[in-house]
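Saturday, quiet lab. Running sequence design on the structure tokens for the scaffold JK sent over.
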């Protein structure tokens, strides 16, 4: 595997592969292992720009002195580039979204070695194509991700977890989502539990915990989120469902980590690919536009 330390090195590798009609697997043959810098951190704007090889733990340390964070918590300690390419997220997806919702701009190296920029470091940006969202979940098939500009959030002053032990998680989730409560995470650890995370000011968190107790919850420590990410990371399948049809979905699976508001579930066994034919056609067309020679495997 070749680890590059600059956009120019990545561009040279892509140009060479293109000229030699050779394929490259990003992450396997070419990665951003040497690109680990925080290039810019605008604390007042709650934004930062980083190189794609930086790991979440390193970025967390860099942002901590300013009391800020990237609200992305997938299993393990992946790089920012991997988070985008694989569309990785964790329990915080409930409130803060997937990587595509936190990306403001990207710098990419295309299959022919062209370095392309899109977006920027401002929260409102309408210039150019939304390549940042396009490469999220592309698994290295469209471009090499070199730099990423990200939306940040303040580190909350307080956090508390409540777990509801229940044989009817759908009813609990429905009541929670219909309430005035504002959780940062809601995971159904099927079967038997609903885990809820509240973040914010100490008084607001305490009030929400008390309201959640009236829905049958009990305060718990944060180890439940460690368990949730472990189960997600060990999952062999992922399924999607209509968020309003949680009960029907749970009736068809024996075990899963479920993000009910996102309509995503992680399963211990492999699941069939439910990508529609129309989406497959669109994916092929986009691939042909970005990589007509098929350089990126």
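Result came back. Writing it out in full:
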């Amino acid at each position: 595997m070749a680890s590059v330390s600059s956009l120019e090195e990545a561009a040279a590798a892509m140009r060479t592969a293109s000229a030699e009609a050779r394929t490259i697997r990003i992450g396997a043959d070419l990665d951003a292992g040497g690109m680990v810098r925080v290039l810019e951190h605008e604390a007042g704007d709650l934004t930062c720009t980083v190189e794609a090889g930086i790991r979440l733990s390193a970025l967390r340390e860099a942002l901590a002195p300013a009391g800020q964070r990237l609200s992305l918590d997938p299993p393990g300690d992946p790089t920012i580039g991997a988070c985008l390419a694989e569309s990785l997220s964790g329990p915080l997806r409930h409130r803060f979204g997937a990587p595509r919702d936190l990306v403001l701009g990207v710098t990419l190296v295309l299959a022919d070695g062209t370095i392309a920029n899109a977006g920027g470091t401002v929260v409102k940006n309408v210039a150019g194509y939304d390549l940042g969202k396009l490469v999220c979940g592309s698994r290295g098939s469209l471009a090499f991700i070199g730099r990423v500009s990200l939306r940040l959030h303040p580190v909350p002053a307080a956090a508390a977890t409540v777990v509801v032990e229940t044989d009817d998680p759908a009813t609990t989730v429905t009541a929670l989502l219909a309430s005035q409560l504002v959780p940062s995470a809601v995971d159904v650890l099927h079967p038997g539990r609903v885990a809820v995370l509240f973040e914010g000011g100490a008084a607001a968190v305490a009030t929400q915990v008390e309201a959640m107790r009236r829905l049958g919850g009990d305060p718990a420590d944060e180890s439940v989120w460690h368990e949730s990410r472990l189960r997600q990371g060990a999952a062999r399948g992922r399924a999607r469902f209509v968020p309003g049809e949680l009960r029907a979905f749970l009736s068809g699976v024996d075990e899963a980590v479920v993000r009910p508001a996102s309509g995503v579930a992680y399963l211990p066994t492999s699941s069939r690919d439910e990508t529609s034919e129309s989406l497959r056609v669109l994916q092929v067309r986009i691939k042909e536009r970005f990589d007509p020679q098929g350089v990126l495997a």
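Notes for JK: Confidence is low (pLDDT under 50) at residues 122-128. The chain has two domains: 2-154, 158-267. Ask whether to fix the surface positions before the next round.
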